[in-house]
Amino acid sequence: AALPVLEASFGPQHREVPPALTGVGWALIQLGRPQEAIPYLEHALLIMPDARGDDLPKGQQGIKSARELLEDAKAAIRVGAFAQLQNGTEELAASQHGVDELA
Predict the structure, then answer these.
(1) What is the DSSP secondary structure assignment for residue 55, as one 8-state letter?
(2) Which pLDDT score is estimated for 39?
(3) C-alpha 30: how far from chain center
(4) If residue 88 lies in a helix (H) or strand (E), which one and from where to where?
(5) In 3-state terms, what secondary structure has residue 64?
(6) Which of 58, 24, 57 lies closest to 41 in space, CA to CA?
(7) How would residue 7 be classed by pLDDT, with cut points 50, 70 and 90?
(8) pLDDT > 80? residue 61
(9) Fewest CB atoms less than 10 Å from the CB: which of 28, 35, 40, 99?
(10) How far apart are CA 34 and CA 38, in angstroms?
(11) Is the Cβ–Cβ distance between 63 and 22 less than 8 Å?
């Protein structure tokens, strides 16, 4: 809710916007929604390539930079895709096992 207010007040390219975008990206990753975090983090990097979590308002400082969070989001997506693939392989092996027993 604060991001639209910041963009309307200062403009979408203002230096106050990237920390808010980084904060939204961080929150989405924490919620297990890394795919949704990527556009926010990429937008933050377009405005301010060196945007860091340290630039966030008090209480939100100390989180990683937008660049680090973007890498975390992409890694989480890869891990999730690998887990789904691995789960599918295990299910296939289990179904094959059942077929072998019937033969």
Answers:
(1) G
(2) 92
(3) 8
(4) helix 66-102
(5) coil
(6) 24
(7) confident
(8) no
(9) 99
(10) 7
(11) yes
